[in-house]
Design goal:
- With 193 residues, the protein is α/β, with parallel strands linked by helices.
- The protein has seven helices and eleven strands.
- Strands 2-6-9 form a three-stranded parallel β-sheet, with no helix packed on it. A three-stranded parallel β-sheet has the order 3-7-10, with no helix packed on it.
- The protein starts with a strand and ends with a helix.
């Protein structure tokens, strides 16, 4: 356990390096460190985003079951961005994606991030999993296609003032609703074409 801070600045690791079940409770710096062989972090916990500025990784890198708690410190986006780039340099795509998500999450939680950027980030997370999921956009598109006639009709009724007509949907049975939905879908497709 590293209670206060752990500094490995300019350290040269010429052999395999393994941290197992380590708790990095303070700021952790591997700045300008050189890892010549494999770096393994197994079941470790970083309370603060670790800094790997100007570090060099030459071997395999593994952060198996390692937790990164910090999303709010001012330097978290920068530190996770550096780790993302380092993972790219050693062709570790799984860890690169992980640090990309941590970078995006920490940008979201920064107090100086504007609300518009937070809203876009939130949509990016919900609808695409930060671009990592191909199923979420497809499911979103399918939901929009299925729900568009209902949204179209409800919004049209709201705009024209037919608020009581909207309440009729609750009274429809499933078969009546399905028949009504088919009519709405046909009407929507006719208007699009």
């Amino acid at each position: 356990t590293f209670c206060v801070e752990a500094r490995f600045k300019k350290a040269e690791f010429n052999d395999k390096v393994k941290f197992e079940k380590a708790l990095f409770d303070g700021e952790t710096s591997f700045d300008f460190a050189s890892f010549q062989e494999q770096l393994t972090m197994l079941n470790d916990t970083f309370v603060w985003a670790p800094s790997f500025e100007n570090s060099e990784l030459r071997g395999r890198v593994n952060f198996h079951n390692t937790s990164f708690i910090d999303l709010t410190s001012p330097k978290a986006p920068q530190h996770y961005g550096v780790l993302k780039s380092l993972m790219n340099s050693v062709s570790n795509k799984r860890e690169e994606r992980r640090f990309y998500v941590l970078e995006q999450e920490s940008i979201y939680y920064q107090p100086e991030t504007r609300w518009t950027k937070k809203l876009i980030s939130l949509c990016y997370r919900w609808f695409t999993g930060y671009g990592l999921s191909y199923m979420r956009p497809l499911c979103t598109l399918l939901a929009i296609i299925i729900l568009s006639p209902i949204i179209f009709e409800v919004s049209a009724n709201l705009l024209t003032g037919n608020i009581e007509y909207i309440g009729d949907y609750a009274a429809l049975g499933f078969s009546d609703f399905l028949e009504h939905y088919k009519l709405m879908m046909a009407f929507t497709l006719d208007n699009i074409a």
